[in-house]
Amino acid sequence: MTDPRVQTLLTSETYWTARALREQGSRFYRALGDALDAADLGNRRRLYEGWTQELWDFYERGLRLEEGERRSGAGDG
Asked: Which domain of life is it from (predicted)?
């Protein structure tokens, strides 16, 4: 049975997760963020299934980034 987090990740917007990966600081995670952003659905599934816990953590960080920007009004204007 597939981890239900994988389905959530697959149906979510990749932008915020990829951004959280890029902002983490390590070259590896920046590259993983770039790969996630560029991946088609099949390759995103492979990434999510192979790195579920790690990418879930960054997904949650991305949700916080999105919420922070929404609250600050960034992008309004």
From this structure: Bacteria
How much of the chain is helix, strand and coil, in % rounded to 5?
80, 0, 20
Please tell me the total count of domains within the chain: 1
Range of the domain at 41: 25-68
Q: Can you state the angle between helices 4-11 and 41-50, rounded to 10 degrees?
A: 140
Question: Is residue 7 situated within a structural domain?
Answer: no
Q: What is the pLDDT along the chain (77 residues), one digit of tens a residue?
A: 689 999 999 999 999 999 999 998 899 999 999 999 999 999 999 999 999 999 999 999 999 999 999 998 865 55
| Residue 33 tokens, joined | 């963020």
- 75 within a domain of the structure (yes/no): no
Residue 55 falls within a domain, yes or no? yes
Model pTM above 0.90? no
